[in-house]
Amino acid sequence: MLKKINFMFLILMLLATACSGGQATESSSSGSTAKIDADGHITIEFWYALGGDTGKVVEEMVKQFNESQSEITVNATYQGDYASAMAKVWSAVSAGGLPSVAQIGGAPLLGSTGAVAPITEFLNGSDGIDQNAIRQVFWDYNSAGGVLWTMPFNLSIPVMYYNRDLFTAAGLDPTQPPQTWDELIEMAGKLTVDTNNNGEIDQWGVNTSTDTHYYLSAMFLSNGVQIVSDDESEVLYNNAEAVEMLTLWGNLVNEYKVMPPNQHEEAKSDFLAGKLGILMASSSNVPSMEANASFEVGVAQMPAVNDKPRVFPVGGASLLIFKDESPEIQNAAWTFVKFMTSKESSIYLSTHTGYLPIYTDAAEWPEFVSYIQEHPNRGAPIEGLNNAVAIPEFPALGTSDSSLRRAVASVELNSATPQEALAEAKRAVDATIKEQGTNE
Amino acid sequence: MNDSQTTLIKTNPFQSGWWRRWGEETFAAYAFLLPSILVFIIFTFFPVIFSIVASFLKWNLPYKASFTGVENYTSLINGPVTSPIFWQSVGNTFYFMLGIPINMILALFIAISLNRRLPGVAIFRTAFFLPTITSMAAVSVVWMWLYHPADYGLFNSLLIELGVPVQRWLRDPALAMPCLILMGVWHGMGYNIVIFLAGLQAIPRELYEVAEIDGAGTLAKFIYVTWPQLSPTTFYILVIGVINSLQAFTEIDVMTQGGPLNVTTTLAYYLYQEAFQYFRIGMGSSVAVILFILLLALTLLQFRGLESKVYYE
After folding, report:
1. Dist CA A311 CA A316 (whole Å)
2. Does B163 touch chain A (CB under 8 A)?
3. Residues A295 and A433 in one domain
4. In this structure, are strands A276-282 and A158-163 parallel, antiparallel, or unpaired?
5. Which positions in chain B touch A260 (Cβ < 8 Å)?
6. Would you say residue A80 has pLDDT above 50?
7. How confident is the model at residue A28, as a pLDDT?
8. How far is CA B166 from CA A197, A256, B169, in A?
9. Whole domain around residue B173: which residue ranges?
10. B152 to chain A, minimum CA–CA distance in Å?
11. Strands, E assignment, A227-350
12. Per-residue confidence at B310, pLDDT binned at 50, 70, 90?
């Protein structure tokens, strides 16, 4: 416990160095970690935020890059999950020691620090690439304040996982997952069972992972709710359409009783233990779910709201290049980013992890056609990309996400009505936007 | 030659009283202390001062810091958005401290039970100390399974055996904090038992023999010999317990993330949320300063109010 607090002070201290150095954010090259040898060989640092098996895939890709040419060496370092990596980048933005390239979530927001070299400059430069080859939604996801800052890398959408064995046991067709929320409620009812007849439900119909705001956002978008206003001055989820979705969510718990109240922390392990019929989670989990489940896993798109088209918010992380005074280092960083997001790398990443290919026509590439034939569960998320949108990256997005999670918990635990919960969320987020806006 | 030597000795400042008192040896002492003083200044003293300075800044990353005076403090105390959660976290912090007396009573009871020469007593001492040396993060993950809200959670299956309705433990706003306290007591008790045992073994046997000659029973011996003799130990455990409890973080971060509905958001966790989730460094620093003042006040209060009742030999 003590260590953790000391660690926080340490971070604050790191930030302090910047304060004394004045506006260190303006001259980011002062803390450059890249090196150019006498013979012109360039060594750059790369920070990434994917651990476990996915992290190993990233390391392998870096190794492939280093072996593919002899002018540039990339040193890759794991920096913890997105939140830890973000904290380290913030410290380095102020105190120096930034890498040349980083893989990080919420990256476009770093644009306003002045430390990021906008990717759009490289895309449009002499060594650029054809932007139309990559899906527009990913470019949107990497823009903030109208500027395209970062390069799409590992991306996902929310999807629905279902236990085919439990479907069969409940008399449902294991090849026909629910298409609408009404169908889901009906099927989840059949999947909610007291298996040992002790008066307590021990197999639930439906649940979501801990990032409840992500699935609620998908429902909002599918019901025509815009998350934030175009000028990013307020959030727009205290209207009838949003209340309708949060009411539906609350009803799953308190009216139809097919979802356990406030049990998202346990949802993934419950699903893998065969105690949950349907789980909403990120599409990046497909390989790990298939590897860890002892039953037949099915993957489908999240249900639609009646006959309205489905809309899914894109999640995941990006590659960004930090500014450096030396054009050689900047170009080396871009060469590396270009390699990591090339067609071949995209195929490698998407077939070795659960992340989605960034290229528009990837689903038609022969490599993918045969891959999806062998791994049919990867098909639904890739198809879902056609309905994906990017929620704008505004500075109060973190507060918005946590306020929505809080709203979900209040409704599930009956401590607020959906109207009250969303009004409260909007009040908190709008106040944060107002406060932050005056600090520029 | 002799003359000049005497003058030299007389005028040599290194031979004067000041140098003998403050020179050589003191210098050597500071030289030896230098590494730890440097570590202390760089990693403790400077960050503390810095976070006090930062608490007067409006510093929302990615924007630059600007001076706002006491605005962070006023918005914590009565701002429309931040104050409800701030005051709730102050309340939660005190609620969480309920674990201290429970822990102390149980630890004292177990320490007295273990303080005898019985075969196998070493095994029990080890068993009670084991949780304390286990990492809090690992303990938290395991206890999440014990506290699982469905009927296949370990505690719930026990309740079913007893015919009691199953509980939602950490996921129930009314039970989440008691659950954390219970686990904290289990985890921290071993340390207190060891300290109490050391205290018990330092009590001279003669005192008990005298008490027995005077006809004192078990209870009388505890009230008139053990308790007063143990008071320095008890006082130490109380002070350390309050400090540890105010800084509790790991179990909250792993098990509840401050939820459900903020009922387990203590000041230390709120500090983390402000500074490292929302990146409001100034606001987070203000919470840190308030936490520091609270800790200082509570410790002073304990020394002023209780130390007079502590019996030192």
Report:
1. 16
2. no
3. yes
4. antiparallel
5. 149-150
6. yes
7. 39
8. 14, 20, 9
9. 97-265
10. 7
11. 276-282, 297-301, 312-313, 315-322
12. confident
